[in-house]
Design a protein that fits this description.
85 residues, mainly alpha, two-stranded parallel ribbon, 2 helices
């Protein structure tokens, strides 16, 4: 029975890929120090930590509108917050 699988990559290619991965992970780590904190994590910290917060969800789609605006329900029939501009 003949296999149609491609041959494994050369060892040099694997080593290069691993090296590139490590460089990218180091750059991501460095970038993380310069980015603002995650909004939900920051809110939880300000409320005293996870032991003081029952549940926080980021499943929310705010809407932007220009006056006059009317409040509407989202596709899941839950009210949406509308920011007036």
């Amino acid at each position: 029975m003949e296999s149609n699988a491609p041959p494994p990559p050369a060892r040099d290619a694997i080593e290069l890929a691993c090296s590139m991965k490590e460089e990218l992970l180091a750059e991501i780590e460095e970038l993380g120090d310069r980015l603002p904190p995650n909004t939900l994590d920051q809110l939880i910290d300000e409320l005293g930590g996870p032991e003081n917060v029952a549940e926080v969800s980021a499943l929310f789609s705010p809407s932007l509108c220009f006056p006059p605006c009317i409040e509407s329900a989202g596709s899941n029939n839950k009210p949406q917050l509308i920011y007036e501009m």
